[in-house]
Structure formats: C-alpha cells, structure tokens
Amino acid sequence: MLKNFSKEYITAGFYVIYLLLCGICYIAFPGNTKTPNIGVLFLFLLVPISFGFAVYHVVKHFNSEKNYTKCLFIHVIAWFSIIGILSNYAK
C-alpha cells in the first residue's frame, strides 16, 4: 500500500498524521497541573521517534542508489516547527 506513495509524501505524512494525533489527544484527554496531557506527552515523544526516522533516512541515503535529500529537508523543517511549538508551550 505504501509503495504507491513517494518517500517524501510518506515522510511529510508521518509528521502531519502524528501532529494531528497529538492535537486530538490533547483535546480528548485533558490533563491538569500535576499530570501532563497525553497530547503533550506524544509531542515530546515525537523528538526521539523523528530522530530515529531521520537516522534511518541518512543510512538509506548513503547505502542505496536513491536520493533522500528531500526527506532529510522535510525532517529539518519539521524539527524547527516542533521546537517552535514546544518553546511556545513552555511559556
């Protein structure tokens, strides 16, 4: 099923779907001052998950014939967006 989509669409789709899941969980499962919201927890878990996904693309870039530069660029843009979201949340 995923072979019908390009690697760039899969990478961008991962971030879009994951961030939508975080937003839905943020609304559906509210927290309070003592317990964190599960949406925020998923957002913080996105950092190591996306880092692992980016490492996978780096390895594939150097060990295969395909070019993964656009995927890595999508990761960088997503990371800057995540940092912006998390820094605004911390205020």
Brief account:
The protein is mainly α. Helix content is 77%, strand content 0%.
Provide a descriptive summary of the structure in words:
By secondary structure, the chain is mainly alpha-helical. The protein is built from 3 helices and no strands. 10% of the residues are buried. The chain is 77% helix and 0% strand. It starts with 6 loop residues before the first helix and ends with a helix. It has helices at 7-28, 38-63, 69-90. The longest helix is centred in the middle third of the chain and has 26 residues, at 38-63.
How do the strands and helices of this protein lay out in sequence?
Elements: H1 7-28, H2 38-63, H3 69-90
Helix pairs in contact: 1-2, 1-3, 2-3
